[in-house]
Amino acid sequence: MKKGLQAITSRETLISAIVSLLLMTGLLLLLVVSGQLFTANADERIAAAAKDSLAFKTSLKGDDIQVHSEDGAVTLTGTVAEEPHSSLAADAVAVLPGVKRVDNRLEVRGRARPGFPSAGPAFSGPDLHNVTK
After folding, report:
1. What is the pTM assigned to this prediction?
2. Do residues 82 and 59 make contact, with C-beta atoms less than 8 angstroms apart?
3. How many domains is the chain built from?
């Protein structure tokens, strides 16, 4: 009788272990999928939060700024009326939840592009607009 009871107990233990393994695998898969969805949603929330920020709605309202976020790395592109607007946009985005880095590629309207005559003195120092947390 002991041998039969041990066989049943071993079989139940094996079935229980297999069920637990399947459940853990399913949960892990769910976490991976939801993590990817969360990241995509977080990037969308960052872009929306930037456009809804007070700075974008007031001081930067007349500027043409696109906000693209990928895994918390935000890239700002477009044009602004003046240099302080570029800094303001980068600073406003850098403090948003989920932002890890800001790559400020904003151009000031009226500044010459490469290959065209310059309207003013050239600056060749470090790029102070790339902010990393």
Report:
1. 0.57
2. no
3. 1
User: Is residue 121 included in any domain, yes or no?
Assistant: no
Long-range pairs for 66-71: beta carbons < 8 A, 24 or more residues apart: 67/93, 69/42, 69/43, 69/44, 69/98, 69/99, 70/43, 71/39, 71/43, 71/100
Quote the domain boundaries for residue 27: 2-116+126-132
Instruction: Answer for the pair 74, 104: CB distance below 8 angstroms, yes or no.
Output: no
Beta bridge partners of 68: 75
pLDDT digits (tens, 9 = 90+) for 48-76: 999 999 999 999 999 999 999 998 999 99
Query: Beta-strand (E) ranges in 34-132?
Result: 64-70, 73-80, 101-104, 107-108, 131-132
State whether residue 112 is helix, strand or coil.
coil
